Amino acid sequence: LLAQILDHWFESEPLKATLATDAVIGAMASPHTPGSGYVLLHHVMGELEGRRGAWGYVAGGMGALSQAIAQAATARGAHIFAEKAVCHVLLGQDGEAQGVALQDGTEVRSKLVLSNASPQITFLELIPQEQLPKDFVQRIRQVDTRSPVTKINVAVDRLPSFLAAPNAHNGQPLPHHQCSIHLNCESTQLLHQAFTEAAHGHPSSRPMIELCIPSALDPGLAPPGCHVVSLFTQYTPSMLAGGQPWDEQARNAYADTVFDCIEDYAPGFKASIIGRDILTPPDLERIFGLPGGNIFHGGMSLDQLYFARPAPSYSGYRSPIPGLYLCGSGAHPGGGVMGAAGRNAAQVAVKDFRHL
């Protein structure tokens, strides 16, 4: 249990709860859920510019990271076709991958196919089911993809001024504006209560909020004096109680709850909002192909990690289809913007390619 680990090392309840947010982020779990300690480890195991466990902003927004990878690839001769939806994987007579078919009818032939789509899309939508072992299909169908995350992007006409650390008179960002700000986590019990509400199908009445202001470090993201605020919030169930839809009313009601909470910490925040974009779990699934809205393509629980990710006997990036590899967050070791799954999968694919 994460709560036991934190109790062992710390006394301060706000500190424990703030650290606990990194253990339940993206997970439909509470700090009291068995195995929750692993997700905290996952979030601090990496390093940034030699600093262990550090995280950073990407200049120009997260899309700039994808662009950097794309430029590195094209510099080495890769051809990239964006906005070209894949319809299915092309298979040979022996069931091996021979390329992909696009929705516009184009066929792209290749000896190997790497998919960083989720295991669900890769194996349940892009491959004929009769080509896969039944127990494998069953396992992929059973992967726990529940996600508690609703992402809210907000445009504001001034920096939030927090009661605990009021803004400077010149309105310039202070050190805390350039960090990750965690709200509604004064105690681990608050997080547990928020989880319990969502487990019963109701968006949390006092949600866990991780607030970032990337424009405080990267002014080009917003006009002068204005800012973009990124809110990573939970817990919101994918399916609302009673089968209610995540319609415009439900989305706005939850967003208002989040903004009311922020207003308590930073009076005037609601009046500063000039635009907002609300992405509930179904929105994250529809727009980004995240199963259940899960940012990791599947829960990072102990039964879905290491040799069992995405399925036992298939944790080494190869799949039941020869020549088809899984290289996204649904493969070992999971998500977290670290690129480990992609790098590992590439090495396996290159090794196999030499024998073709």
Write the layout of secondary structure elements.
Layout: H1 2-9, H2 13-24, H3 36-44, E1 47-48, E2 51-52, H4 63-75, E3 86-91, E4 97-102, E5 107-109, E6 113-115, H5 119-124, H6 134-142, E7 150-156, E8 181-183, H7 188-199, E9 208-212, E10 227-234, H8 248-265, H9 269-272, E11 273-279, H10 281-288, E12 324-326, H11 340-353
Parallel strand pairs: 6-12
Antiparallel strand pairs: 1-2, 3-4, 4-5, 7-10, 7-11, 8-9, 9-10
Helix pairs in contact: 1-2, 2-3, 2-7
InterPro entries: Amino_oxidase (IPR002937), FAD/NAD-bd_sf (IPR036188)
Subunit structure: Interacts with COX5B; this interaction may contribute to localize PYROXD2 to the inner face of the inner mitochondrial membrane.
Family: Belongs to the carotenoid/retinoid oxidoreductase family.
Write up what this structure looks like.
The chain is an alpha+beta fold and 356 residues long. It folds into 2 domains: 198 residues, no CATH class; 119 residues, 3-Layer(bba) Sandwich (FAD/NAD(P)-binding domain), CATH 3.50.50. It contains 11 helices and 12 strands. The strands form 4 sheets. It has a 5-stranded antiparallel sheet with strand order 8-9-10-7-11. A hairpin with a 2-residue loop joins strand 1 and strand 2. Helix 1 runs antiparallel to helix 2 and helix 2 packs parallel to helix 7. The longest helix is centred in the last third of the chain and has 18 residues. The model has no long low-confidence stretch (mean pLDDT 93). This is Pyridine nucleotide-disulfide oxidoreductase domain-containing protein 2. Probable oxidoreductase that may play a role as regulator of mitochondrial function. Its main location: mitochondrion. Belongs to the carotenoid/retinoid oxidoreductase family. InterPro entries: Amino_oxidase, FAD/NAD-bd_sf.
